[in-house]
Amino acid sequence: MFARILLSLAGSLLLLVVPRGANAQEAAKLGDPAIAHIAVTANTIDADIARLAEGRTTNDDVLAFARVMISTHTAVNEKAAALAKRLGVTPQDNDVSRTLNQGAEEAKKKLSSLQGAAFDAAYLQREVEFHQAVLDALDQTLIPGASNAELKALLQEVRPVVAAHLENAKALQKGGTTAHR
Predict the structure, then answer these.
(1) Which residue has the higher pLDDT, 82 or 11?
(2) Cβ distance 128 to 173 under 8 Å?
(3) Whether 138 contacts 162, CB under 8 Å
(4) So what's the pLDDT on residue 20?
């Protein structure tokens, strides 16, 4: 049941960030301040949910993964904040970022009700779905829609990290360990 709810949330994220038939022209309508805010929101959400995992998991591999999520996504947000400050751009709240935050609150509430292996399984499933949705959004909307070269470069720099997080979460789901990147 919980996995279905998470899948629905991930699907909602994907539909919100990447509308059907979206292309670079449609993505450009978001504008750089909105794209920056979506990226910052996604990073903040994943770091916050990883903090929840850090306090709830008893699995050493899941704990290590959560700590990587915290450090990596926090570092990306620091780079984004420095870039925004240098460019004099204020990230702009928008419907997508508000919906992402709403979904994150629901995910935290659901995850908080779980313990042990059930928590770990639900957390990892959420990480797989979330990172896949973010990767799709980067490829289909955020990178093509960014008009500022430095913002686009930052999003392109982050893309392989998101892909690695996705693969690491999948490996943990299968009972393996991760490269902790």
Answers:
(1) 82
(2) yes
(3) yes
(4) 41
The domain segmentation of the chain, as residue ranges, is 2-13+31-173
125-166 residue pLDDT tens: 999 999 999 999 999 999 999 999 999 999 999 999 999 999
DSSP 8-class letter at 30: T
Contact call for residues 73 and 50 (beta carbons, < 8 A):
yes
Using the predicted structure, report yes or no on whether residue 14 has a pLDDT greater than 60. Answer: no
Of 97, 119, 121, 126, nearest to 173 by C-alpha is 121
Please tell me the total number of residues recorded for the chain in this structure: 181
Listed residue (136, 141, 140, 142) closest to 155, CA to CA: 142
Long-range contacts formed by 155-161: CB under 8 A, 24+ apart: 155/35, 155/39, 158/39, 158/76, 159/135, 161/72, 161/76
Domain 2-13+31-173 top-level CATH class = mainly alpha
pTM listed for this prediction: 0.81
CA distance 37 to 63: 28
